[in-house]
Amino acid sequence: MKLIEKTQIMDKDAMRRALTRIAHEIIERNNGVENLCFIGIRSRGVPLAERLTRKVKEIEGKDLPIGVVDITLHRDDLALSSGQPVVSHTDVSFPVSGKTVILVDDVLFTGRTTRAALDAIFELGRPASIQLAVLVDRGHRELPIRPDYVGKNVPTSLKEIVSVYVGEIDKEDKVIIQEIADEKL
Ligand SMILES: O=P(O)(O)OC[C@H]1O[C@H](OP(=O)(O)OP(=O)(O)O)[C@H](O)[C@@H]1O
Ligand SMILES: O=c1cc[nH]c(=O)[nH]1
């Protein structure tokens, strides 16, 4: 699939500010951090969840547990929607029952990855609630899923792809929109 880079929509500072705001929103909405835990969706949801827990620690002085769910997406076609995400691995070393889980991902699109992650969490136990934090919501939901915390809402067309780069994996922080150049949609 050939991609043409179109626009950069967030730089390192914009990402840092968005995550700082989300950390404050999480603390405010939950009246503190008692009972909270974080679960990142691999791959880029994991460093974002780690950054959020570091910010929460800076603000509230408490360490919160982080787990990981790995969802593999088997896409049926190149239109990017209609994929079939399945849980391939879960690494959550604390009990989720009774907790408020903050599920973290980089991009929210159809909602299918989130749904698979919710299934994976309920396999582990029964949380008190689950809240969803994403760096970018690009729209085009195919399921009744909405984020509780959003870094940036980005209206997109189905010919576009939003790519999040994080220093921990990609050596730099940025969010770009690319366009699919050569595929039938
Ligand atoms: O709402 P959805 O339609 O499910 O799309 C969102 C998911 O797609 C991306 O993952 P991708 O499968 O591209 O893999 P990646 O994490 O390796 O980028 C992104 O990280 C989200 O997890
Ligand atoms: O544009 C998209 C769609 C799904 N996942 C992404 O990371 N970007």
TrEMBL record:
One Pfam short name: Pribosyltran
Enzyme class: transferase
Catalytic activity, reaction form: UMP + diphosphate = 5-phospho-alpha-D-ribose 1-diphosphate + uracil
MF GO annotations: RNA binding; uracil phosphoribosyltransferase activity
Boundaries of every Phosphoribosyltransferase domain copy: 7-157
Entry keyword annotation includes Cell cycle: no
EC number: 2.4.2.9
Alphabetical GO biological process terms: DNA-templated transcription termination
Domain of life: Bacteria
Transmembrane helix found in the keyword field: no
PRPP-binding (motif): residue ranges: 101-113
Protein keywords: Glycosyltransferase, RNA-binding, Transcription, Transcription regulation, Transcription termination, Transferase
Protein role: Regulates transcriptional attenuation of the pyrimidine nucleotide (pyr) operon by binding in a uridine-dependent manner to specific sites on pyr mRNA. This disrupts an antiterminator hairpin in the RNA and favors formation of a downstream transcription terminator, leading to a reduced expression of downstream genes. Also displays a weak uracil phosphoribosyltransferase activity which is not physiologically significant.
Family: Belongs to the purine/pyrimidine phosphoribosyltransferase family. PyrR subfamily.
Quaternary data: Homodimer and homohexamer; in equilibrium.
Name of the protein this chain belongs to: Bifunctional protein PyrR
The organism of origin for this protein: Formimonas warabiya
Gene assigned in the entry: pyrR
